[in-house]
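User: Can you predict the 3D structure of Sortase D? Sequence below.
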Amino acid sequence: MPGLPSRRSGRAGLAALPALPALFLAAGGLVLLAQGAWIPAKAALAQALLERAFARTLAAGAPSRPWPWADTVPVARIAFPGLGESYVALAGSSGQALAFGPGHVEGTPEAGEPGTAVYAAHRDTQFRSLGRLAPGDSVEVRRRDGRTIRFRVTGRRIARWDASGLDADAPGRRLVLATCWPLDALAPGPDRLLVEAIAEDSRTAEP
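Assistant: Sure. Here are the predicted structure tokens for Sortase D:
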């Protein structure tokens, strides 16, 4: 009868149905892979623009936006000399800021000032190397006023995001670098890796 499938074609169609979930899974996997590749690529491109904006900030002594529509500005460059890495940090720790670079957490002092300066970043971009830092390692923070503060790592610990125990007004000049934990996890979780450091000295350096 016209318009009706034969038994053979019907059986073929039914046989193809079990393959549909596999196709959906494969498509979903490709989407996740694309997203996983896009996030680091976007962060790397943003860092190039942030470096230029930070250089303008140091030269002019005034904040410079990395792109015209940015709602934040670069405030520091964080360097891990032992790892050969450095990243420009933005003001604020909103999700939008962290998509492009480390963020200086609101309510904490600038690096080198009395208290605890806190910077946060994603574990799959700029702060993916926090797990490689060990006590005694050096961390340098170049501020937007041109001062470079050198810190020495004193330790690291794991804490829930809402139970870190961090005190922005703690005595001394301290630094905390924070990212999600575990470092190799794909899904968000409540734990954070906190790398703690204490200031050694400060100096003025060339851009």
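The radius of gyration is 23 Å. The first strand starts at residue 74 and ends at 80.
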